[in-house]
Specification:
The protein is mainly alpha-helical. It has one domain: Four Helix Bundle (Hemerythrin (Met), subunit A) (Up-down Bundle). It is built from seven helices and no strands. The chain is globular, with a radius of gyration of 17 Å. The relative contact order is 0.13.
Length: 182
C-alpha cells in the first residue's frame, strides 16, 4: 500500500511540471488538487509503511527519489514560467545526487543517510509549488501578486539553504571518511 501511494505521486510528476510551466494545461483548481494529492501521498506513504511494518531501505529510496523527481520537475516547470529561480532545480539535482552517492558509495550503507538540513529542504521544496499554485487561484489580485513574489523570494532562500546543505554534507563526509579505517 505504501508503494502505491508513492507511485501515485510519481505518476503526477509530468502533469504537474507541465501545469506549472504552461498554466493553460491545467486550471488552477486542478493544479491545487494535484499538488494536494502529492503532499498527502508523501505524508501517508511512510506512515503506512511503518504501520504495516513494510518499511525498507528500498521503500525509502523509492519515496525520496519520487519526492526528488516531483519537486525538481515542478520547480523546473515553475522556473520555465519565470516564477522561481532556475538555479533551484539544478541545485536540487546536485544535492540529491550527493545524498545518494554519499549514502551508498562513500559510507557504503544500505540505506540513505539523512541530515537535518537536507530533510528540511526536502520538505520546504514543496512550499514554492504550493504558493505558486494558490497564487493562480485568482482569489484576490493583491494576494496573487504577493504570493508570486513570495514564491520567488522563497526559491532564493532555498537556493541558499541547499548550498549550505551540500557544503555541510561534503564537510561531514570528508571528515567522517578521513577518520574511517577500512
Amino acid at each position: 500500500m505504501a508503494h502505491a501511494l508513492t507511485a501515485v505521486r510519481l505518476l503526477l510528476v509530468v502533469p504537474v511540471a507541465v501545469a506549472f510551466a504552461r498554466p493553460e494545461f491545467a486550471g488552477p483548481s486542478v493544479l491545487v488538487v494535484l499538488l494536494g494529492v502529492a503532499i498527502a501521498t508523501d505524508y501517508w506513504d511512510g506512515r503506512v509503511a511503518r504501520m504495516t511494518k513494510t518499511a525498507s531501505a528500498r521503500g525509502q529510496l523509492f519515496d525520496h527519489g519520487t519526492d526528488f523527481a516531483f519537486v525538481t520537475a515542478g520547480l523546473a516547470g515553475a522556473a520555465t514560467a519565470g516564477l522561481v529561480t532556475p538555479i533551484l532545480p539544478i541545485l536540487i539535482v546536485i544535492a540529491f545526487g550527493q545524498y545518494v552517492l554519499d549514502s551508498y558509495f562513500l559510507h557504503r550503507q544500505k540505506q540513505l543517510r539523512m541530515n537535518s538540513l537536507g530533510r528540511w529542504n526536502g520538505i520546504l521544496y514543496f512550499v514554492p509549488l504550493l504558493v505558486v499554485s494558490v497564487s493562480r487561484l485568482g482569489v484576490a489580485r493583491d494576494l496573487a501578486s504577493f504570493l508570486t513574489v513570495a514564491a520567488r523570494v522563497l526559491s532564493y532562500a532555498l537556493v541558499a539553504s541547499t548550498v549550505a546543505s551540500v557544503v555541510d554534507r561534503a564537510r561531514a563526509s570528508t571528515r567522517n571518511h578521513g577518520e574511517r579505517v577500512d
